[in-house]
Amino acid sequence: MARDLRDDEEVRRQLGATIRRLRQARGLTLRELAHECDVSFAMLNHIELRGQNTTLASLQRILRALDARILVEEPQTPVAAAVSMRLATVLAFVPEEEREVFEHQLALWERRYLPKDR
Known about the structure:
With 118 residues, this protein is mostly helical. The chain folds into 2 domains: 5-65, 434 Repressor (Amino-terminal Domain) (Orthogonal Bundle), CATH 1.10.260.40; 78-113, no CATH class. It has helices at residues 5-25, 30-37, 41-50, 56-65, 78-91, 96-113. The longest helix is centred in the first third of the chain and has 21 residues, at 5-25.
């Protein structure tokens, strides 16, 4: 089945916007982050603003420098998806040393409150 490339472009734009928000929240300039993760200023700028395609290795270096990660999940019901998006945004700001506790509490909450067919 053919994939709609506009969906891929939207995902890249959202990822770029998220990287920008994380960078700004951590008080880093584009140049500082580019230097820290060994990518060019121009490439990082294009990723943030236009969702430019990048290699997985570059994306991993960027995320590592931001102390962030990408979670891949199976499709969910609209309600569960909306809740997951909000929680993923929150998780991006949880310090690494606190994530395990946060994720455990989140799993308990999901089992209790989200529909089983999500």
